[in-house]
Write a structure and sequence with these properties.
about 0% strand; mainly alpha; Helix Hairpins; rod-shaped; about 230 residues
């Protein structure tokens, strides 16, 4: 996962203005299209990795739930054996209960770690989706800019006097380029805002899970038939 997120980080840190400049300098949209292709490729890999981890989370949650049910039954069995005076059976059941509780704690630790990784992947995917949307939107504007620059260059070459050549097309090209830059800046700011909102949602979700976990522990201590 680390190498995948490293590649995503590199893509997200790419300077969009520099990409526009390279496209203008080379008079080609190829550098833009290559970046879009890389973003789409990493999004597919992120989606696959997130789906895999999501499946692992569900598997661990099921295993933890099964083990918790067993722990409850074992806890009842220990008390039952003690009431019968069967200390040997009670000791064996207590030993199994201890092992079960240790396994439950292991599942909880695994679940906490893997859920953190899962949320990181989801956040990265949201950021990539936002970046991809931005790039595709600006691609059409960049094509128009390249066409305008090319037409102005042809027009300049056809003129005969130095006075006529001076500044031909520069204002129009600069104006459209600045418009593209402004759109890119706005889209990047919007992406950061969406990411911040996602962070808050993640924190809120994790907080709810902690509370739900605490309530579940209290329910187990209260035992059957004692829920408030």
């Amino acid at each position: 996962m680390a190498s995948l997120l490293d590649k995503v980080t590199v893509l997200l840190s790419a300077n969009l203005h520099a990409l526009v400049d390279k496209a203008l300098q080379s008079n080609s949209i190829a550098v833009f299209d290559e970046y879009i292709r890389q973003v789409e490729d990493q999004m597919d890999k992120l989606a696959d990795a997130a789906a895999t981890i999501g499946g692992q989370i569900k598997g661990i949650q099921r295993a933890q739930a099964d083990q918790e049910e067993k722990a409850i039954e074992l806890d009842k069995a220990v008390d039952a054996f003690l009431k019968e005076g069967n200390d040997s059976a009670a000791a064996a059941a207590q030993n199994r209960l201890n092992s079960s509780n240790q396994l439950i704690e292991t599942y909880k630790t695994q679940l906490e770690k893997i859920q953190t990784e899962y949320q990181i992947m989801l956040e990265a995917k949201v950021k990539l989706e936002s970046r991809l949307e931005t790039m595709k939107t600006q691609r059409a504007h960049l094509i128009s800019l390249l066409e305008l620059a090319k037409s102005k260059e042809i027009a300049a070459k056809s003129l005969k006097t130095l006075d006529a050549l001076k500044g031909v097309g520069n204002s129009d090209v600069a104006r459209i380029a600045n418009q593209i830059y402004a759109r890119l800046d706005k889209a990047s700011a919007y992406m950061e805002l969406r990411s911040a909102n996602l962070d808050e949602q993640i924190d809120e979700a994790l907080g709810r899970k902690e509370i739900e976990g605490q309530l579940e522990q209290r329910r187990l201590l209260l035992g059957p038939g004692k829920k408030e």
